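[Q] Does anyone have a clean structure-token version of this?
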Amino acid sequence: MRDSGGRGQGPGRGGGGAGSQGGPGAARRTPGGPGRAGRPGTGRAASPDDPFHLPFGDTPRSRGGSPADDDAPDDDPAPGGPRRPRPGQGRPRRGDDDLPTGGPHADERSRGRTSQRGGSRPGEDDLPAGGPHAEERSRGRAGQRDGEASPGGARGGSARGERFRRDESDHRRDAGPSRGRAGQRDTEARPDDAFRRRPSDTARRPPHDRSRGDGDARGRDDGSARRTQADNPVRRPRDEDAGRARPGEGPRAATRAGTDAGGRGGTRVRAGEGARRDPQDGARPRAGGGGRKPPPPPKPPLVLRLGSPKRRISIGLIAMTFILSIFAGRLIQMQGLDSKVYEAAATKQRLHVEKIPAKRGSITDVNGHNLALTVEARDISIDPSKIPAEVRQGVASLLARTLGRPVEEMAAKLARTDTRYQLLARGVAPPVADRLLKEPVPSLNATSTFRRVYPGGDLAGSLIGFVGDDKDGLTGIEQVKNTALAGTDGELQIETGRDLQRIPMTGSQRTPPVDGRDVRLTIDRDIQWAAQKAIGEQVESAGASSGTVIVMDVRTADVIAMANAPELDLANWREAPEAHYLNRAAADVFEPGSTNKVITAAAALEAGVVDSDTVFHVKDNIQCYDRVLRDAHAHPPEDMTFAQAMAQSSNVATVMAARRVGSEGLYDMLKAFGFGTKPGGDMPGAGAGLLPHHDKWSGSQSCTIAYGQGVSVTALQMASVYQTIANGGVKVEPRIVAGTTAPDGTFTPAKPGKKTRVISTATAKEITAMLEDAVGAQGTGELAAIPGYRVAGKTGTANRYDAELGRYDGYTASFAGFTPADAPRLVVLSVLQNPKNGHYGGQIAAPVFKDVMTFALKSRKIPPTGSAASPARAGAEQ
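[A] Here you go.
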């Protein structure tokens, strides 16, 4: 039959059930013919211990029972007492006991109860083998065995019972009366025989069908069995105990007990054993003795297992613990390990530092007059986005008129509505800013700051220099002494919110600024003005490209005046050409010309190869290697002393003296006077000049350098040469800074210039006498003479090298001298570059010397010495 196979030994469900033989009245079960083959399935392999252990169905053993539970004794009451129902046993079906024991309904009741019990019991073997009940007993045992063979037990339902009834009817027609005997033998056999099958017992038996009544009983008991198993999972009693009548009860009670046990599932038997066919079915026999392929077994119901609440709670607690541990770890990190880091970050975020600018120190002259100073000012700014378009033009006109700026510039800044800040003007005077803030202009702001003021305008402009918008010096003294002048800015630390408004009740830390130190120069404002005025006028008169004047103290080498023309106007330095930013007196190099002859004279005198009275036969030209050098003026060959040659500025006589000294001796003397070396003393823009080594001199250069061609110097270097001669042969490093003054008024003088003896005092006096003759009537520098004062000086005229053209073009006219000649106090040097109206130094540079020296002598109150002229000059005059 379809449900009769156990767990198969291969891909099928196993061997078929045993057939039933014998007719009615048979007392024992005997093996019948071959049963129907089990339907091939996909179940698990059969277990040797339990061949009917099916992979589906809700049998008591699959629910957790053990084989030991089948052998457990019943909890029977004491003899004579009522029997207690075992746990899980259902109550007899209501209404069965009300039917009479005999009559036409007896057979029907017996058949139904037997089908419900689904198996043979020891109590049934005691009934007579024959009689009207034999068929019912046999049919009941067949229903019991069939219930065990089915995987689902009583779950087959009415449809399965209908199939069983048709099969039983066919079997009755085929088997005849022999079925009874077989049924009787099955009844006498032990209930466990149905389960004892060897794995090799795979013989096929004839198909058998269940009776119709058995199918109906199985259908009716399906729901009851499931409810009983769900309500009480305790193992059911053995079949023999279920069929046994309790003491004091009659056969009906025993029958009910068996019915209850069958309704609960009972002991399973193999399908097909003891089955009977109902003649009333009318089902056709199977052709050829073969079996009809049964329909597939119903799928086991899908059981929805509910999760365990305890497991869900445990998983939830673990997850919550993990998440909370992450938060706890992060909290420990932030509040414990990295607390200082986050505290510093928070403080930095809300801390706003405002810079308190230090007041820049002033620059004064030697007498304390301000040449550059810092005053309080305002920076005017505006938010263009707050200016309505209809009033924008009117606001631009107002700002331009008040600030002194072009209207177009103000209108362009107001048109930048995409920005929130536009700087309109820097360094506005406070009265002007206050007046502007009173105007009905929205979002106008004035920030306190400082402004650099230069009272002298262009007075020593290139020497002083200027500062940029960041308040740092860019050129001149402003740049060289920027550290001392700038001071140290202070700061104010406050805590602010998002809008940079100070948070109330919060602390603040203020570091006061340290104002810059005042720088005192060696410049005399008055002499500087006079020098600047004189050179400016002469540059304009001679049509020169530029001019320079330096006034120096002989004893200290302090620069009293350093004037350039044209000069830089510090009030409008932004509009001035960059060429004016350069301090030409210290930076521009030029070939000195005849003013350099004093170094050749010093070298010859120091070497002892000549003296003042040495006579030279001088022509107006001289051959020097591949070149012919000439004097400035043509003259016939004549004899002249070395002093006369210096007074008349003879190039030929100077070359003749230099040849006696030699190139190396001349080079050493040039080096000793400072050529090729950058002067110290914090001189802004100072250059070193150009002095090639004597090994690199060409043949003609060894001659031209003697009278100042082929070597380049600055005006400051040349002024230092005459300071050395005037100072008795002692060179002092030029100095421009006299010292600094602290904010508390303490003055710290600068270090004096380094002193170096270059030539002897005697040599210096001899050269001074020669220079004094050069300013006399027989000399080239007569226009430099000052009435009442003994003046010593030398003119210079040299070919000018134009770096832009890359060749010589024009001339450089110069004059250098000092006074009083017998007690020198001041040195003045005047230089004009590329003059157009005259080019000799005695013509255009000597007058500048005279004007500046005269003013300086008066300003310094240096009286004339009143002494007579030098012997050399007196002899020359005779």
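[Q] Thanks! Anything notable?
[A] The chain has 28 helices and 23 strands.
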